[in-house]
Fold this sequence. Notes:
Layout: H1 2-9, E1 29-30, E2 47-48, H2 51-63, H3 73-78, E3 84-88, E4 101-104, E5 110-116, E6 119-122, E7 131-134, E8 140-146, E9 162-165, E10 171-173, E11 182-185, E12 193-196, E13 198-207, E14 210-218, E15 223-226, E16 273-280, E17 283-290, E18 295-301, E19 308-314, E20 322-329, E21 336-337, E22 341-342, E23 347-353, E24 360-362
Amino acid sequence: MDAVEVACRYVGWSYAWGGGHAQGLPGPSQGMIDPTDPRSYGDPNLWSFDCIGLVRWAWYKATRQDIVSERTTQSTWQNPGYAHTKFTKEQGEAPLLPGDILYFGTGITHVALYLGDGKVVEAPNSGDVVRVADARWDRYQGAFRPHTAGVFPVWEYDGLGQHVKTWGRPNLRENSHTGSPVKWQNGNGISVAVRALCQRVGERVTVDGMVNNVWTYLPDYRSWVSNLFLQGPAITPGVPSCGQYAAIGGTLDGADSNTSCGDGTEPNSAGAWTAKSTTVWGRTVELRYNGTTACAWGRIIGGTVGDEIWVDRSSDNGQTWEPMLGYTTVTSGGDAYTTQWNDNGLVMRACGTNGKGGTIACTGWY
């Protein structure tokens, strides 16, 4: 059963409460805090699945249809929303087959996929991992067998590509331009970890002041997404050109003028915040950061003409660094900022002075 094969690929992944619940877009997504469970406080740092999120993804990958959709365990029990055969608690284990969707708990609090021989694959709870376990028959309430079958290879380009994270509400399209039909939509903006196979130059797109003409092919959805909606720099490191895949094609030629995020570009993207700050003689020195683009830049405010600001960037957590990137001075008023710099997988800090030759103050590394 294809759904079982899919779910078992994720054995060992950390559970994430709310994971797998991007509206309209199945897949491992950013977890949330369950206010009733202190174990979940770290789940927003994970991109994975909760119990119904795992079942949703497994059956999507098996069928290319989001039959479970973005719903709770309880709601999928009350109204599955797809053609199915239902098995009752009284029928027991005998009629079940691998891939059947099993529900557990008074009030329905858990769901898993049946493996056979009394075993399930499940995402249990915060602080645990996706695992194979014995079915809890004392808590079993019934099961559904969807009436649908896979029609495509479950793992196209198996073993290739790398997971990157979305942001915002991207449209996944049939081709690498905005006039192409939308195949999938992320309706609620929850970040999803998508498998990026390759990237190529397509239509130039502008969002929130950022510009990018690079698009990425996502084999799990057979779709393209503009790199503007992938966290990180304009061209994703480690993801090859689509030219090496004859069935896809395309190159990265002409991708050198993008600003999301290119070294030395203007800090004009929305969603930035102050990651670190310090003061020097009444001035505030800030390291500004944008997690969407993985850009960072320095800003000094409340100063005077001649005050200096720059950023340092390090690939070894601040042991050594590239110094004085984007160096600039206040030329009028009391504020100035550097250009923005790629901070993907690196750490940076901002440094400023109260005028040339004055005291140097640097923020912490971030």
